[in-house]
Inverse folding.
């Protein structure tokens, strides 16, 4: 887990604010679910052989004996809230977005931590390909607005449960002669859930995985029609994409359309965000059959990509630095700072005990636009000496406390 330091705060805020603004453009409304959930919300939905359950969830019993989990992902929690609060009675689909921390006991790496922040959207209650494309378009728009418009979109269809049953039989037959040469993790998955081997990072370049049959050849008529319409709508919107039959997603509740966004030329570990359709999720939580589709994107992974390229994000600035020249004038300086703050200006108050040169260094360190100097002469007359710091050789001028906000404007 890691700290967000002040020097990264502006970029973090830029990503968060952009995500929330783009979500509003598509009329997705904010929902916030608890960081701690009943563990069954995830154990019943993401699959026993998913990495989240088998290796990554933080599980614990509380003092009352309830089995709880730190939230490892957002979709199941949002689906639980949809069901618990009777959102099926609202006009469908229900469009929701979230922004918050998730927790996974994962191997830390660049842009991936055990506490990770995610932004995600969920469109629940519509089974049409149009819903898939709206969510993809929202995600693509977000990346464009952030300055990551060159991310590559890869899409696939994993069909329905019956599709995957037929495909799993073919995949098992293909991989069986090569099991002994796969990693230990893939050997375990061959016995428990062979489809998960396609997620393996260790065996990604193994010849047997490079030559696996395509799941697209096993889609039924409904699956194929759905995927054809998704691609046609993306083409209509001039969204560039690549069909990649290897994308299966890591959670059991996905069905039909799945996708990932990643930097051009990067591997799977560099995925910035991913999503898919999950028509059986709410049934796993005890509700009626309810279609849904959504995506999640990692904030740290976005920031890592933004740091590699120029951005328009400016460091926070202070409008005014107030410099008291001595203990006797500190109260007057604090009054000047209060006047400016009341008018909406960001003010850093210097403390007495520093000389003029030290105050100017502090003002420059704060990236202040102006400095207001308060000496004994100024304090007795309720005025400051106001000097711009953005202009070379700018002259200072005397300004009364009552007119300080006007002078700053």
């Amino acid at each position: 887990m890691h700290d967000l330091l002040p020097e990264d705060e502006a970029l973090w805020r830029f990503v968060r604010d952009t995500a929330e603004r783009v979500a509003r453009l598509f009329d997705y409304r904010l929902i916030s679910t608890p960081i701690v959930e009943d563990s069954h919300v995830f154990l019943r939905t993401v699959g026993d052989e998913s990495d989240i359950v088998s290796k990554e969830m933080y599980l614990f019993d509380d003092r009352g004996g309830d089995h709880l989990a730190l939230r490892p992902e957002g979709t199941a929690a949002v689906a639980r809230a949809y069901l618990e609060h009777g959102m099926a009675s609202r006009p469908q689909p229900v469009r929701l977005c979230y922004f918050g921390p998730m927790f996974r006991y994962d191997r830390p790496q660049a842009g991936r931590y055990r506490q990770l922040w995610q932004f995600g959207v969920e469109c629940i209650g519509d089974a049409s390909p149009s819903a898939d494309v709206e969510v993809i378009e929202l995600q693509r728009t977000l990346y464009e607005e952030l300055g990551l418009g060159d991310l590559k979109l890869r899409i696939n269809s994993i069909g329905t449960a019956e599709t995957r049953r037929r495909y799993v039989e073919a995949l098992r037959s293909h991989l069986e002669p090569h099991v002994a040469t796969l990693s230990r993790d893939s050997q375990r998955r061959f016995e428990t859930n062979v489809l998960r081997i396609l997620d393996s990072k260790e065996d990604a370049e193994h010849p047997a995985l490079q030559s696996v049959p395509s799941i697209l050849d096993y889609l039924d008529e409904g699956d194929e029609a759905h995927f054809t319409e998704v691609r046609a709508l993306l083409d209509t919107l001039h969204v560039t994409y690549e069909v990649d039959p290897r994308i299966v997603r890591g959670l059991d509740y996905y069905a039909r359309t799945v996708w990932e966004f990643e930097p051009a030329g990067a591997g799977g570990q560099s995925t910035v965000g991913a999503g898919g359709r999950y028509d059986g999720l709410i049934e796993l939580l005890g509700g009626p059959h309810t279609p849904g589709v959504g995506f999640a994107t990692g904030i740290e992974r976005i920031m890592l990509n933004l740091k590699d390229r120029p951005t328009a994000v400016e460091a926070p600035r202070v409008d005014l630095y107030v410099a008291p020249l001595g203990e006797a004038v500190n109260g007057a300086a604090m009054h000047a700072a209060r006047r400016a703050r009341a008018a909406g200006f960001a003010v850093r108050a210097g403390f007495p005990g520093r000389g003029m040169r030290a105050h100017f260094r502090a003002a420059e360190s704060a990236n202040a636009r102006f400095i207001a100097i308060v000496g004994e002469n100024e304090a007795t007359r309720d005025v400051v000496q106001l000097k711009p710091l953005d202009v070379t050789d700018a002259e200072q001028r005397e300004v009364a406390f009552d007119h300080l906000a006007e002078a700053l404007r």
Observations:
- The longest strand covers residues 94-103.
- The CA atoms of residues 145 and 346 lie 27 Å apart.
